[in-house]
Amino acid sequence: MAVCVAVIAKENYPLYIRSVPSQSELKFHYTVHTSLDVVEEKISTAGKAMAEQRELYLGLLYPTEDYKVYGYVTNSKVKFVIVVDSSNTSLRDNEIRSMFRKLHNSFTDVMCNPFYNPGDPIQSRAFDSMVSAMMVQSS
Amino acid sequence: MADDVLFEFLHMEMVSHVYKEQASRDDIDKDRITCVSILEGMGFRVGQGLIERCTKDYPTFKDDLDVMKFLCKDFWTSIFRKQVDNLRTNHQGTYVLQDNKFALLTQVSSGKQHLEEAPKYLAYSCGLIRGALSNLGLESVVTAEVSLMPSCKFQVVIQKS
């Protein structure tokens, strides 16, 4: 399943980032950081073609030798990035979309929590357990 | 879905609670302003959360006018069970939303005597609009005015940075 999941705020700092700990975390942080450029590019090019409305799901951002990176941006400009293992039996597009939908739903719940201040790192246990369910499969 | 009346009661109690708290302190002049800011702040935070929920399955907005139309139709419907009756704009970043039968004012009797108390009940909704817009990336200043109960106008000025 997913090897790394990240939630990035509107101002491009991470609100939540978690990766399967077997490999180096730093590499994933770096991958997510570089994928932000691709996300920005997709958002801005779609903005110029003002005619049609853009979907929230951005699709495959870029494949590296080991991993594939998928992106999704909400209407409040919060970005979700999922990194999956290439060696995995290729996950269908629908599965990735459903993962993003789950992430979005949990994020909306966190946002509606009155004790959560927008912009703080996400510390909700419910969110954690949802992400764990998406990540645990390998190792 | 819960009854609308539950929120109306809660809102009325919220307003009177905030004003009672402030009245116990000494400075009368700052009262009004702080009360309005407190209510507006509450509305702001709620607006942020609500808009996240409302736009969950919506594709991105084309421009500011699209955002305002969404606010007037879907957002207003999900909160007050009706749409905003009139939206006017000068195409320079100022929008006026007119609601002819504002849900939170219908229970207040229409009459000149109550007209000056009406803005208290609009502060929270101003915050709602401001919070919703802020989460969608538009910083704004929202003010409200009542000339004839129960209709009211919200004026939104988008701050261009």
From TrEMBL, chain A:
<keyword id="KW-0931">ER-Golgi transport</keyword>
<dbReference type="InterPro" id="IPR044760">
    <property type="entry name" value="TRAPPC2L"/>
</dbReference>
<dbReference type="GO" id="GO:0048471">
    <property type="term" value="C:perinuclear region of cytoplasm"/>
</dbReference>
<dbReference type="InterPro" id="IPR006722">
    <property type="entry name" value="Sedlin"/>
</dbReference>
<dbReference type="Pfam" id="PF04628">
    <property type="entry name" value="Sedlin_N"/>
</dbReference>
<dbReference type="GO" id="GO:0006888">
    <property type="term" value="P:endoplasmic reticulum to Golgi vesicle-mediated transport"/>
</dbReference>
<comment type="similarity">
    <text>Belongs to the TRAPP small subunits family. Sedlin subfamily.</text>
</comment>
<dbReference type="InterPro" id="IPR011012">
    <property type="entry name" value="Longin-like_dom_sf"/>
</dbReference>
<protein>
    <recommendedName>
        <fullName>Trafficking protein particle complex subunit 2-like protein</fullName>
    </recommendedName>
</protein>
<keyword id="KW-0813">Transport</keyword>
UniProtKB/TrEMBL annotation, chain B:
<dbReference type="GO" id="GO:0005783">
    <property type="term" value="C:endoplasmic reticulum"/>
</dbReference>
<dbReference type="GO" id="GO:0005802">
    <property type="term" value="C:trans-Golgi network"/>
</dbReference>
<dbReference type="GO" id="GO:0007399">
    <property type="term" value="P:nervous system development"/>
</dbReference>
<dbReference type="GO" id="GO:0030008">
    <property type="term" value="C:TRAPP complex"/>
</dbReference>
<protein>
    <recommendedName>
        <fullName>Trafficking protein particle complex subunit 6B</fullName>
    </recommendedName>
</protein>
<dbReference type="GO" id="GO:0005801">
    <property type="term" value="C:cis-Golgi network"/>
</dbReference>
<keyword id="KW-0256">Endoplasmic reticulum</keyword>
<dbReference type="InterPro" id="IPR037992">
    <property type="entry name" value="TRAPPC6/Trs33"/>
</dbReference>
<keyword id="KW-0333">Golgi apparatus</keyword>
<keyword id="KW-0524">Neurogenesis</keyword>
<comment type="function">
    <text>Component of a transport protein particle (TRAPP) complex that may function in specific stages of inter-organelle traffic. Specifically involved in the early development of neural circuitry, likely by controlling the frequency and amplitude of intracellular calcium transients implicated in the regulation of neuron differentiation and survival.</text>
</comment>
<comment type="similarity">
    <text>Belongs to the TRAPP small subunits family. BET3 subfamily.</text>
</comment>
<dbReference type="GO" id="GO:0006888">
    <property type="term" value="P:endoplasmic reticulum to Golgi vesicle-mediated transport"/>
</dbReference>
<dbReference type="InterPro" id="IPR007194">
    <property type="entry name" value="TRAPP_component"/>
</dbReference>
<dbReference type="Pfam" id="PF04051">
    <property type="entry name" value="TRAPP"/>
</dbReference>
<dbReference type="InterPro" id="IPR024096">
    <property type="entry name" value="NO_sig/Golgi_transp_ligand-bd"/>
</dbReference>
